[in-house]
Amino acid sequence: MEKDERDRLEAKPGKKNNVKDFSTGYDGPLIKAEGKELLQRNVDRLAKLQDLLYAHDRYAVLVVFQAMDAAGKDGTIKHVFSGINPQGCQVCAFKQPSDEELDHDYLWRIVRQLPERGRIGVFNRSHYEDVLVVKVHPEIIAGNKLPGIFDVKDVTKDFWSERYRQINDFERYLTETGTIVIKFFLNVSEKEQEKRFVARLNDPAKNWKFSSSDLKERELWSEYMQAYSDMLSETSTDYAPWYVIPADEKWYMRYAVSQILVERIERLPIHYPEITEEKQKVIEQAKEELAKLIG
Ligand code: ATP
Ligand code: MG
User: Fold this and answer.
1) pLDDT digits (tens, 9 = 90+) for 49-102
2) Are strands 179-187 and 60-67 parallel, antiparallel or unpaired?
């Protein structure tokens, strides 16, 4: 991917970022067949990189997906990570928090699902729901038993600034202790979402994907876009930037996500452990013993 193109997809750290300034469609030079071929190449590359990550055993990679409904999180995860050894990868979907989860701080359930060193963890929704759906519906917070928050009126602007700061601190800590954080916002247009909802309603095989609450959230589109813009402005950092991926063309979205992942992981100083002289001797000895056993 050309540097220009990648720059356009990145939400600039420390700057005001507005969802409106990012494309939802793709009109670049790549054609669909090429995009699919490049995706396949990246899928293979990711499998090799994960193997290396595991052998090196110093870093974990956390990949976060956020999006409006029907933007294509599930399909993107399915296609991009399809080549990875299942032992090297874990996917976690975050739904409405359970009672037990609500009895803890909002990062508790997130921390419990972080990938081990050597593995890739994929979050289908994440701690960002706590500054997205929760910001659009602040009444949720009033029920969260937080100190000092008894009513929607207590959820002030400062409350949100503090929460963005907490998320940034958390991600800085993760990065400094070996978990690389890569965040994707799949940016679908209102029009394309409508098309996909209609398809879900009209195709019996897709009916199960439809939920009537999706329509209710769609009515709050501009509130969501404001929450996404704030999220991009406040939590795109040098150490954990947001990538805003056009989602109206599924093939381009999948290619772009895979490309950014490959580029980011390739930048890590990872290598297979060197075989020491001592280890080499042990291997030679084992070979001899095995040869004797076999005869
Ligand atoms: P699908 O493709 O299956 O619809 P989904 O991710 O939309 O996947 P759902 O069960 O439909 O899954 O929705 C999960 C819901 O949980 C979303 O509406 C999301 O906003 C909500 N949710 C996630 N985290 C939180 C949170 N911390 N507080 C409140 N709601 C949350
Ligand atoms: Mg849903």
Assistant:
1) 999 999 999 999 999 999 999 999 999 999 999 999 999 999 999 999 999 999
2) parallel
Question: Does the CB atom of residue 102 touch ligand 1 within 6 A?
Answer: no
Cβ proximity of 179 and 119 under 8 Å: no
Tokens encoding 43: 């899928």
Residue nearest to atom 20 of ligand 1 (CA): 133
d(CA 245, CA 257) in angstroms, rounded, equals 7
Pick from 73, 281, 43, 61: nearest CA to 179: 61
Ligand 1 centroid, distance to 172 Cα (angstroms): 26
Mutational test site, ligand 1, from 78, 95, 146, 217, max ligand atoms within 8 Å of CB: 95
d(C-alpha 159, C-alpha 148), whole Å = 11
Question: What DSSP state is assigned to residue 111?
Answer: H
